[in-house]
């Protein structure tokens, strides 16, 4: 997705999947060389890197009330998504600059990670003019 939409991806460890070269290459197929992928050992590493770049940290969470469609995204935003099993820890949830949600039908718990990333990234790129243009 990162390669296809032209979006940098940061993976924050510890991950629940293997990030050694062979496993990543198999999952990333031939797009991996085109993806701007950074692996961080843990939250502290990621946070230090992000703070040096600046911009807002926008957390996608089921525990927010503001719809992502009502949010004005900025080009410098970093979108943060939680792990498939448990989302993000409470302190990271509380520390995000913005918490936003993808509205769902009452009684449903959450979308899966890949789907929520696709929806959030698409809307952020649409608003900031960053979506790739269709080939003419
Ligand atoms: C499978 S969900 C995590 C489920 C976990 N039990 C929870 O309640 O946080 C994985 C990630 O997808 C994102 N996500 C899933 N559904 C969402 C929604 N409706 N709105 C915003 N983010 C969502 C969040 O970043 C979440 O941490």
Radius of gyration: 15 Å
Bound molecules: S-adenosylmethionine
Uncertain regions: pLDDT < 50 for 5+ in a row? Answer: none
Count up the helices: 5
What is the arithmetic mean of pLDDT?
94
Structural class: alpha/beta
Strand order of the largest sheet: 4-3-5
Architecture of the largest domain, CATH level 2?
A: 3-Layer(aba) Sandwich
Number of DSSP strands? Answer: 5
Q: In which range does the helix fraction lie?
A: 25-40%
Distance between the termini: 21 Å
CATH topology group of the largest domain: Alpha/beta knot
Per CATH, the class of the largest domain reads Alpha Beta
- Domains, number: 2
Sheet with the most strands, sense and barrel status: 3 strands, parallel
Strand residue percentage: 5-15%
- Give helix and strand order, one letter per element, not per position: HEHEHEEHEH
What is the CATH H-level superfamily of the largest domain? SPOUT methyltransferase, trefoil knot domain
Tell me, briefly, the overall form. globular
């Amino acid at each position: 997705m990162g390669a296809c939409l032209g979006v940098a991806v940061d993976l924050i460890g510890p991950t629940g999947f293997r990030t050694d070269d062979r496993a990543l290459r198999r999952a990333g197929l031939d797009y991996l060389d085109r993806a701007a992928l950074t692996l961080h050992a843990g939250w502290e590493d990621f946070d230090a890197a992000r703070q040096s770049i600046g911009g807002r940290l926008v957390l996608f969470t089921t525990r927010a009330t503001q719809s992502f469609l009502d949010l004005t995204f900025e080009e410098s935003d970093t979108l943060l998504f939680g792990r498939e099993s448990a989302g993000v820890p409470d302190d990271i949830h509380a520390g995000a600059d913005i918490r936003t949600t993808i509205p769902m039908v009452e009684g449903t718990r959450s979308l899966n990670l890949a789907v929520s990333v696709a929806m959030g990234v698409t809307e952020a790129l649409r608003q900031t003019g960053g979506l790739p243009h269709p080939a003419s």
